[in-house]
Amino acid sequence: MSAAEAALKIAAAHPRQAVLVEPGRIELREYVAPRPGPGELLIQIRCALSCGTDLKTFRRGHPMWKLPMPFGHEFSGVVVEAGASVTAFKPGDAIMAAPTAPCGICFYCQHGQENLCDDAIGRMVHGGYADMLLLPAHVVARNAFIKPPDLPFEEAALLEPLSCVVHAQEMARAEKNETVVIIGGGAFGLLHMLALKAAGVREVVIVGRGAERLKWATELGADRVIDARSVDAVAEIASLNGGFGPDLVIECTGEVEGWQDALARVRRGGRVVFFGGCAAGTALSVDTRRMHYDNLTLMAPFHYRPRDVRRAYELLAGRALNAGAIVNARRRLGDLDEVFEMLERGTVLKCAVIP
Ligand SMILES: [Zn+2]
Ligand SMILES: [Zn+2]
After folding, report:
1. Cα 161 to ligand 1 centre (Å)
2. CA of 97 to the centre of ligand 2 (A)
3. β-strand 69-70 against 144-146: which pairing, if any?
4. Over the stretch 335-352, which tens digit does the pLDDT of each residue have?
5. Are the beta carbons of 74 and 158 closer than 8 angstroms?
6. Cα 140 to middle of ligand 2, angstroms
7. For ligand 2, a single-atom ion, which residues have Cβ within 5 Å?
8. Considering every ligand atom, which ligand is closest to the CA of 105?
9. 210 φ, ψ to 5°?
10. What tens digit of pLDDT does each residue of 3-52 get?
11. Which ligand number lies closest to the CA of residue 98?
12. Under 8 Å CB-to-CB from 65, ≥6 apart: which residues?
């Protein structure tokens, strides 16, 4: 028996699953892995990644999901058992998957806006922080892929966040000769930066807070970093692009101040992508004169469609991005409390949680 088979046997005997019991409290519980039904896959998790959504949910719950609930939605693993009628995957296959998939038959799906399908968010797979996970049939059918052997499980688990980035960038349509400013130096900001650089965009600038984050952005290949807290930040951004300011601004903080800032910093005739969702009840104020006479284009892409997931898969499989560099810490499943402490302190971009 190989080491991997031995590990699988142990995990199969006493599988554990992290449950968010209430805000701030995670419990590692034993649970009996269900047998996969028709179209489903039982997978052994090899890696789950921490995500900003996890941190928000950990702090204050989530309007869409009821606690207690299994936790974690960015993952990759190996098929343990395939349900009836699954032909694309078999036991032993390494796989990567997005945690959601659309229904394919509703109004939005019929209009090519599968990101707005009720199923896309409402039937999200939770439970990536675990030994085992049951992947439902709608996800297996549309948003699961065989992981290429040379792609690390850690990088494969970036499929979901990268799908969101791909969707946004398809709307934004950055040109190679443009200057793009990304507001927010977290994992999403840096994923945007990596995708833009891989697409050959000339100048990608990260505006972020804190020397450590900005150092990561520089190391990962940002053409320039600007400290949002410095007194010169506004002037520095205005001086970009030969003094015209950025052609495209991508907002990745999910704070209204960031949205307001993105709107203020973009050049005349430029585009703004509001990527980070803000808290409910917040509002953006737009100067109609500037909006019209400066000919601004504002976009607010949400979630992703199957075609975005496929494109994200191709980017990861082609090793086009070095996206794995975003993952800058590793912990075991039993150390989730520490993982969330690190996320709270902002001392990690994305943490790999290895069962
Ligand atoms: Zn996520
Ligand atoms: Zn639908």
Report:
1. 5
2. 18
3. unpaired
4. 999 999 999 998 899 999
5. yes
6. 16
7. 102-103, 106, 109, 117
8. 2
9. 95, 135
10. 556 555 655 668 999 999 999 999 999 988 889 999 999 999 999 999 98
11. 1
12. 57, 124, 126
